[in-house]
Amino acid sequence: xxxxxxxxxxxxxxxxxxxxxxxxxxxxxxxxxxxxxxxxxxxxxxxxxxxxxxxxxxxxxxxxxxxxxxxxxxxxxxxxxxxxxxxxxxxxxxxxxxxxxxxxxxxxxxxxxxxxxxxxxxxxxxxxxxxxxxxxxxxxxxxxxxxxxxxxxxxxxxxxxxxxxxxxxxxxxxxxxxxxxxxxxxxxxxxxxxxxxxxxxxxxxxxxxxxxxxxxxxxxxxxxxxxxxxxxxxxxxxxxxxxxxxxxxxxxxxxxxxxx
Length: 260
Prior knowledge:
Layout: E1 9-14, H1 18-28, E2 32-38, H2 42-45, E3 60-67, H3 72-83, E4 88-92, H4 96-103, E5 110-112, H5 132-141, E6 144-148, H6 149-153, H7 157-177, E7 180-184, H8 196-205, H9 210-217, H10 219-232, E8 236-238, E9 241-242
Parallel strand pairs: 1-2, 2-3, 3-4, 4-5, 5-6, 6-7
Antiparallel strand pairs: 8-9
């Protein structure tokens, strides 16, 4: 049952079968979902409408462009281009250089599965893909770390245990330094979608408190939505500076980056 005091959003749903997923999301109790599209696939980017779609059956639809893997040198350029296409910029984590570069960019909104680091752990050291310097940058830049349910469900045995342990380690870091974190389904099809209370249960299994798990599918996604809307709002000149009345002047078209 949906808690009407909260608004629930799943911010990582793959973009196939959009209509079916919207209907399923509404039935499960979601207020909004973000369909992620691969920046390197032209056919994916064509799914983004030129104008925002009306809310369907109470479910607001957002679009995010997922970048990477690629070189750190091209990440900022592609992130700025992606801002002109979609509501959110996501980065495929898992490569140490990409994780670190993404955290330095104001244009990035979400770092996906950073725990999937390809590097080997040193003796008695768990490489979770994040460290305190990176998480501090995330908190400053309003970037959320993703805890993706599919990364748990699609792994087995020792690999699943290692994934959960690394997620728990990242949770401790983002909690300590006040960075945003979100719970997502990573759903490939409508059967991969889960109800908000199921996602909250997963968060608590990872070590989140009840309040933290609820925030990871409600308040924290809403913070990202506010960031996206401020980024597009021509009245907001920079972070914390808003024009209330332009008088005889008219605001010019705002670029999506550099306003912060």
